[in-house]
Amino acid sequence: MTPEEESRLIASFGRACAALADRFPAATTGSPA
Prior knowledge:
Elements: H1 3-23
């Protein structure tokens, strides 16, 4: 894997994570309210 491919993979993964976070907001940590 070239450095360019690695950068593209990491950027794509970050965008996918951001899209999932927008679709499924994170639950708060700790005890339920």
